[in-house]
UniProtKB/TrEMBL annotation:
The lineage of its organism: Bacteria, Pseudomonadati, Pseudomonadota, Alphaproteobacteria, Rhodobacterales. This is Uncharacterized protein.
Length: 65
């Protein structure tokens, strides 16, 4: 019995996961049977985005010339 063709590749899922991690938001990656990869807000999680540049700004020091 032959296998059916894949609807998405592992690289597609990895790309979606990286995209979610880069936003810093609490999100879920949902793999649909028809091949769609859907990103949804995590259940009960507030929509808060993490900006990595904000950490750099907090650690910066001010130099007066």
């Amino acid at each position: 019995m032959p296998r059916t063709a894949a609807k998405f590749r592992q690289a597609d899922v990895a790309r979606a996961i990286r995209a979610v991690e880069q936003t810093g938001a609490a999100m879920e990656v949902v793999l649909e049977r028809d091949g769609r990869i859907r990103l949804t807000r995590a259940t009960g999680a507030p929509m808060i985005f993490h900006d990595p540049r904000a950490e750099l700004a907090e650690d910066a020091i001010e130099i007066e010339l």
